């Protein structure tokens, strides 16, 4: 084949993008050809350019042009290569040269426009693009023209060109998302949402469209939906600074300030020169009253953008709270010079001058504010003015949105939005302890018992129709459980008064209760008929007498509870009817009160406008008076380097915390305490107050739900291993009768279901507590519907769990003896004995309703809420002892929770399978005891690490440092001249000798406020005087468990024991890792190495 005839094959490989094949074929053609083939060199140059070798491609095209200087195709490709190489000026010259020979080629005009676009010569770029569009409509040219208009801020014209490009490519998600962002620029949210919806319909995971849709939801204050959109985008663009900025603002809208600061700091790390992120960081810091951090962030933002007036306003607000009024006034004057038509600037300036007693200036800027407000609103409406006057003096957050495309970032600003708190629903405390509420609770419980009995005894009967017999009973019980629970929630949360007051709930309640009486009476009659002894077993359809006997028991129980429910609903009818009689009189009283209030409101409305400004001034002064004041920082300022002083602020946990009023009173009154009569004033002067190290903000990795899931999975693992040890088989033998490792036919699935539900009770309860849909900013009606959706999920889930447990427990009740069933209730007795004092204390609180007390007693579980225990760092001895007593009671409660959780886990997962095992089954009780010991210690240690996090250990240690301790000594060893009478109003230094109740005690600690004869104080200081003592005990316990299991593993010979010990050791390894990590963190905080000390000094 000749060289010219191979050109088609070379072109085919080029079209197929087979670059290696093109190079091989081109080399063969050059070797075989007797004369030069220009097409081969042309294709080789194109291949080099597609491979990214732009310099070699330019040289190849130059060699082609030397042979044919006036070839337009060569000129176009040389210009295109220069364009890709970034040599835009040379590319324009080459395109101009080519256009002399071929002036109607639109692609060269497009490439020229692209060169001018990169050269920032937008005017010539638009001229060339208009020349292209005069030939025909091309998508790339329309997009480029829209991009140029967008950079020139001509958003309306850019939208038109993008719409034309979408007509040519209607399924292009990039174009649709860009169009949506442009609609966001012009604040046309409806069209933006339509465009983004079309993009998401074609590609639900398109990052730009999802991000923009999330920004729209963010603008409408639907933060949860916005966060879900942002979460999708983070899978594709993790390092997007604007994305993290929006996530931080969404969390700020949900009032999760710590998480918001974390996200905004990550955004600042990714884009350190973005002034909007610094601005938002300043606002969140100001919300947390971290004035120093807020000033630093805002001042840094000012260095990157000094043309934004609200930035000066917020800096002035911070400086005013720092009591730097001169610099705050300068900031307001700078904002006034920059602003053009902003309402917040004159409003804040006027209120600032009013607080500074500058009435003339305040009146001047107030008139400017009202005139602009009247221009904005059209007329001076009293309602609008009152809303503006009652507004906060802080400007709202600034939202930014970004998308990633072709290495560029498109940023747009969303309008300001205002944060709204969650509207909580009030509880009806009278209804909680009323008789009708208790009746409803009993009705629901009886209904679940009926469902469990019917489902466990559901079998053939004399009536064989779809909606007859037991199916009718099951439907009746399920429907009235749901309806009764709905009415219980409505009256408990006062929804019939607050939201749905137009519905006659009392009349509906009476009607439904009457209907329930009739239905339950019919259902009970049906169950009595089913359980009647006169039936013979052939009519019912049972195969044996024993089987039918179980059916008779369950049907009889269901019949009794159905009749009891009918009686309960009858009493509910009587109570509801009695409640309905005084309603008319109450309505008349309410109407009479409203008429009296209307007369008073006419008088008060006359003085509203005069008092409004005074109220605003008072509120502003209260805010400034309660601002934090007690630290000092130096900030170099461009205007002169003024030092700003912040008094009355104390450093704690690596953040600035405003001191409360009681803490300040404690410190002021500490000097006024009179010590004992023996003259310990000198002792008081020698007391050294402990100084605590700065504890960093370390968030808890595992929450309550995560820990409960972890403990439940461990319990399930132990339960599986115990069944493996009990029902193991010899499945590996050649003539074994089973092919499975377990004897599944001996396992009682109903017992297994009951034990599994008992072990998972805490996870289910925690999940139901965390399941909520009420979001910030939702109104009352939306809150009601969200609450309805929430309970529509919780009720079926709770019903399914209770029904499953009832179904399994009925079978266990029918097939096991009563003595065996008592094994299930032994932990309840242990709980009563362990928490007897707490139960008595809970039920002795007569200020709470009975239902609330019962609910608190049942739902009280151990949790790692260390934020409720805050160390006050007081110098008053009585307050120190009171604080330590609170800590001691909380520690005892947590220890009892650990003990009970460890006992229940070991009892239900290890012992209960043995108690319900068949009598002929061999049980190795020595191995059961060893496994119970291991599971008890592991569960207890796991619970201790959760209930005693390092944050709580730090708080307890700080209180122990202030408490100190007294050590009993022999009186004859020390002279009586050094012994003083112990006084409860004194702080004692280290080494003090005091006498109390004929005993002598020596003080140990920097400051000693403990009571000498109080054993709880001594034990508390022994346990928490060293910050690492608790962590060291947990480390030793974990190491002891691992060592003991390893020794058992060495001496084990059976395969199931080896497998059990290996899996349990893995759990202890994870536990040891966590505890050792906490030990390292606390050790670095309290006992830093020399390297860290030198770094701090530097």
Automatic annotation (TrEMBL):
Name this polypeptide is given: Bardet-Biedl syndrome 4 protein
Biased composition (Polar residues): 601-626
Membrane disposition: Multi-pass membrane protein
Segments for region (Disordered): 601-639
Pfam families reported for this sequence: MARVEL, Tmp39, TPR_16, TPR_8
Annotated MARVEL domain residues: 431-581
Keywords: Membrane, TPR repeat, Transmembrane, Transmembrane helix
Record family assignment: Belongs to the TMEM39 family.
Any one of the GO CC terms: membrane
Coiled-coil regions listed in the entry: none
Record localization: Membrane
TPR repeat segments: 72-105, 139-172, 173-206, 309-342
SUPFAM superfamilies: TPR-like
Domain of life: Eukaryota
């Amino acid at each position: 084949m000749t060289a010219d005839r191979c050109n088609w094959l070379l072109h085919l490989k080029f079209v197929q993008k087979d670059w290696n094949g093109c190079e091989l074929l081109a080399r063969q053609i050059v070797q075989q050809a007797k004369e030069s083939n220009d097409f081969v060199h042309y294709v080789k140059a194109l291949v080099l350019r597609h491979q990214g070798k732009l310099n070699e491609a330019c040289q190849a095209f130059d060699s082609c042009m030397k042979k044919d200087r006036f070839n337009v195709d060569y000129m176009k490709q040389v210009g295109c290569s220069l364009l890709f190489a970034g040599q835009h000026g040379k590319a324009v010259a080459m395109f101009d040269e080519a256009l002399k020979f071929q002036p109607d080629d639109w692609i060269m005009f497009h490439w020229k426009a692209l060169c001018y676009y990169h050269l920032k010569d937008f005017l010539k770029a638009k001229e060339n693009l208009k020349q292209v569009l005069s030939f025909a409509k091309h998508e790339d040219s329309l997009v480029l023209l829209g991009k140029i208009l967008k950079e020139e801020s001509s958003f309306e014209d850019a939208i038109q060109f993008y719409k034309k490009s979408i007509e040519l490519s209607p399924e292009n998600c990039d174009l649709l998302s860009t169009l949506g962002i442009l609609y966001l620029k012009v604040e046309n949210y409806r069209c933006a949402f339509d465009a983004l919806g079309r993009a998401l319909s074609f590609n639900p995971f398109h990052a730009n469209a999802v991000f923009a849709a999330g920004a729209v939801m963010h603008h409408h204050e639907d933060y949860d939906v916005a966060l879900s959109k942002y979460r999708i985008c983070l899978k594709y663009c993790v390092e997007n600074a604007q994305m993290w900025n929006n996530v931080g603002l969404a969390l700020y809208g949900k009032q999760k300030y710590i998480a918001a600061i974390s996200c905004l700091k990550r955004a600042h790390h990714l884009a350190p020169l973005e002034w909007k992120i610094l601005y938002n960081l300043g606002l969140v810091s100001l919300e947390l009253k971290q004035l120093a951090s807020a000033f630093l962030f805002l001042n840094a933002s000012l260095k990157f953008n000094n043309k934004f007036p609200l930035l000066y306003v917020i800096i002035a607000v911070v400086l005013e709270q720092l009591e730097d009024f001169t610099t705050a006034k300068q900031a307001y004057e700078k904002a006034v010079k920059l602003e053009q038509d902003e309402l917040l600037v004159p409003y804040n300036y006027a209120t600032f001058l009013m607080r500074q007693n500058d009435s003339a200036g305040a009146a001047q800027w107030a008139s400017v504010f009202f005139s602009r407000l009247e221009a904005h609103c059209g007329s001076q409406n009293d309602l609008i003015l009152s809303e503006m006057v009652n507004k906060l003096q802080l400007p709202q957050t600034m939202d930014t949105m970004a998308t990633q495309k072709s290495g560029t970032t498109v940023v747009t600003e969303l309008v300001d939005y205002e944060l709204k708190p969650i509207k909580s629903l009030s509880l009806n405390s009278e209804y909680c302890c009323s008789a009708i509420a208790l009746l409803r609770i009993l009705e629901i419980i009886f209904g679940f018992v009926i469902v469990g009995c019917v489902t466990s005894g559901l079998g053939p009967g004399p009536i064989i129709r779809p909606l007859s017999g037991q199916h009718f009973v099951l439907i009746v019980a399920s429907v009235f459980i749901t309806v009764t629970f709905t009415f219980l929630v409505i009256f408990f949360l006062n929804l019939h008064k607050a939201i749905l007051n137009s519905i006659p709930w009392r009349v509906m309640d009476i009607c439904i209760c009457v209907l329930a009486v009739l239905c339950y009476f019919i259902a009970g009659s049906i169950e009595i008929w089913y359980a009647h002894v006169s039936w013979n077993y052939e009519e019912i359809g049972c195969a044996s007498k024993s089987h039918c006997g179980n059916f008779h028991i369950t049907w009889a129980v269901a019949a009794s509870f159905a009749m009891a429910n009918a009686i309960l609903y009858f009493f509910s009818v009587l109570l509801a009817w009695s409640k309905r009689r005084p309603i008319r009189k109450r309505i008349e009283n309410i109407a009479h009160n409203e008429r009296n209030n209307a007369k008073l409101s006419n008088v008060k409305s006359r003085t509203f406008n005069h008092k409004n400004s005074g109220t605003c001034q008072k509120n502003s002064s209260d805010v400034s008076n309660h601002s934090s004041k007690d630290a000092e920082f130096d900030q170099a300022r461009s205007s002169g380097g003024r030092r700003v002083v912040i008094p009355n602020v104390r450093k704690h946990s690596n953040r600035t915390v405003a001191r409360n009023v009681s803490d300040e009173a404690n410190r002021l009154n500490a000097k006024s305490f009179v010590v004992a009569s023996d003259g310990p004033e000198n002792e008081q002067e020698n007391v050294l107050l402990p100084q605590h190290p700065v504890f960093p903000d370390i968030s808890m990795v595992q929450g309550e739900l995560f820990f409960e899931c972890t403990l439940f999975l461990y319990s399930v693992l132990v339960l599986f291993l115990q069944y493996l040890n009990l029902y193991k088989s010899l499945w590996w033998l050649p003539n074994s009768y089973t092919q499975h490792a377990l004897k599944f036919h001996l396992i009682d699935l109903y017992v297994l279901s009951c034990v599994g539900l008992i072990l998972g009770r805490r996870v289910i309860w925690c999940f139901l507590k965390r399941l909520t849909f009420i979001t910030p900013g939702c109104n009352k009606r939306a809150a009601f519907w969200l609450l309805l959706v929430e309970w529509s999920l919780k009720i079926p889930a709770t019903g399914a769990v209770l029904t499953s447990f009832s179904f399994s427990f009925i079978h266990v009740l029918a097939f096991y003896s009563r003595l065996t069933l008592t094994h299930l209730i032994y932990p309840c007795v242990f709980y009563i004995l362990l928490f007897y004092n707490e139960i008595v204390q809970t039920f002795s609180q007569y200020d709470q309703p009975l239902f609330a007390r019962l609910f608190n007693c049942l739902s009280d579980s151990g949790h790692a809420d260390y934020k409720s225990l805050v160390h006050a760092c007081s110098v008053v001895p009585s307050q120190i002892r009171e604080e330590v007593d609170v800590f001691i009671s909380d520690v005892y409660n947590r220890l009892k929770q650990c003990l009970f959780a460890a006992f229940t886990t070991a009892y239900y997962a290890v012992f209960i399978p043995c108690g319900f095992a068949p009598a002929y089954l061999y049980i190795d009780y020595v191995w059961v005891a060893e496994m119970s010991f291991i599971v008890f210690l592991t569960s207890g240690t796991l619970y201790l690490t959760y209930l005693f996090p390092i944050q709580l250990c730090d708080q307890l240690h700080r209180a122990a440092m202030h408490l100190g301790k007294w050590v009993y000594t022999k009186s004859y060893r020390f002279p009586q001249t050094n012994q003083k009478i112990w006084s409860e109003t004194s702080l004692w230094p280290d080494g003090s000798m005091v006498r109390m109740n004929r005993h002598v005690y020596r003080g140990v600690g920097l400051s000693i406020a403990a009571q000498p004869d109080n054993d709880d104080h001594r034990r508390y200081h022994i346990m928490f005087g060293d910050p690492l003592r608790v962590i060291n005990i947990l480390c030793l316990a974990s190491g002891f468990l691992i060592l003991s299991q390893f020794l058992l593993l060495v001496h084990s010979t059976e395969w199931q024991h080896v497998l059990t010990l290996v899996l349990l050791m893995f759990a202890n390894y994870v536990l040891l890792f966590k505890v050792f990590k906490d030990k390292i963190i606390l050790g670095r905080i309290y006992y830093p190495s020399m390297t860290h000390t030198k770094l701090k000094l530097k």
